[in-house]
Hints:
Blueprint: E1 4-5, E2 8-15, E3 38-41, H1 48-55, H2 62-69, E4 82-85, E5 92-94, E6 97-103, E7 106-110, E8 113-115, E9 122-123, E10 128-131, E11 136-140, E12 146-149, E13 154-163, E14 169-183, E15 193-198, E16 201-205, E17 209-215, E18 220-227, E19 229-234, E20 244-247, E21 250-255, E22 258-259, E23 263-264, E24 271-273, E25 276-278, E26 283-287, E27 293-301, E28 309-315, E29 319-322, E30 328-338, E31 347-353, E32 357-359, E33 365-369, E34 372-378, E35 380-382, E36 386-395, E37 403-408, E38 412-416, E39 421-432, E40 439-442, E41 446-450
Parallel strand pairs: 2-19, 14-15, 25-31
Antiparallel strand pairs: 1-2, 2-16, 3-4, 5-13, 6-9, 6-11, 7-8, 7-10, 10-13, 11-12, 12-14, 13-14, 14-17, 15-16, 17-18, 18-21, 19-20, 21-22, 21-23, 24-26, 26-29, 27-28, 27-30, 30-31, 32-35, 33-34, 34-38, 36-37, 36-39, 39-40, 39-41
Amino acid sequence: MTRWTDTGAWLVVALSLAAPAAAQTRAPAKPPEADAPVAYLVKPGDTLFGLSSRYLVKLGDYRTLQSLNKVPNPRHLRPGSTLSIPYALLKTEVIDARLGAFSGAVTVTRAGQAVAVSRNMALVENDRIATGANAFATLDLPDESRVSLPSNSTLKIVRLRQVLLTGGLRRAFDLDLGKGTASVTPMTTKDSQFLIRTPLSVAAVRGTEYRVAFDPARASSAAEVIKGVVGVGATAPAASAAETPVPAGFGARASADGVKPPQPLLPAPALVRGGRTQEDPVVAFAVEPVTGAAAYHLQLANDAGFVDVFTETVSPTPQAQFDKVPDGTYFVRATAIDADGLEGLPRDYGFERDLNTLDAGGGPAQEKTGKMRRFKFRWSAAGAGQRIFELQLFRGAETVPFVDAPGLTEPELSVTDLPPGAYHWRVVATRFKPGQPPSVKAGALQDLQIGE
């Protein structure tokens, strides 16, 4: 079903009209597209005997090729002619996949047993990779293609093979739950295939970027195309076999009610708050509201390619917050989700996380010894580096400090016998970090009323 045009690749998505999720099983009636036969261009000197001995599983399979291709003499082939060779007859070798990045609760199940998970571990056919809440995994393939799984997703590796005859790559995956994002390197042989299947759809692609999702609770499957062109057709027996081309920037969804017409994906949201440097205890972002958005999806990653995603959130408003983000350089990806659940186009931004807080806390504590009253001011600061503090105390509306105490190395200072009246006070912190110039942070003015 994969086809080529002069302008680029086609992604073929077969969306079936299936029973409700509770009754669904993966139907084995039709062989997967990864088993499509290989078209081999005959070279001078080729014979069926020679090809069989080098590239077929069994030498005697040359008879099948002879019959299938109507070859009169297995010792003579016409150069330039084409042989159709069933994939099942061809010798293949296993190619590897690696767990290029992961975070959170990621499990790998092999032969029914959980195996220890580690970065760059080898993954093999029939491995099942599952991500828990706020967990992420990225599978790297030798040609730099990759599949990324967000939270609460399950993917099974069905096939990782290279055809010895042509060098074609056959990669197939079953997405049983959640979502998968694929970035596929353009393929150099026409028999190469890259498939992600769900119980409701098959996505076959040559060199593009797209997302596939399956939601068993809704009995619904979706394909969202970032780059490339998609042909979408229903696979139910009563449905039309015609395919509708869906360009980049569009998505298609299927359910038991049928296949909805392709619709434009929502545009990428623009970040209005949260870029550059984030110093507050909570990392916060705000994006421009997108017309038609029902929710917003934000992801944080360690890399600009979003291979190493480490947290995400879906928010009903165009604001999002993340706790416990350590200092470092990160990237945020924002998308808008429409009312039908299709996720829109992404936009990425870089930002620095540099925790640097200054909290004045409550008012000063009073202590009395005899007739002397002592006011102990306390404050706190968080973030890397060394700090020197300055306490400034202003009387009434004066702008010149009544008390100015610079050079404090501890976050407290006691002031004695302050006359009754209205005061304002603040703390200024100067932070020193290796390799950076000193930075100054001034706290907000705090009110202080001292009675008789």
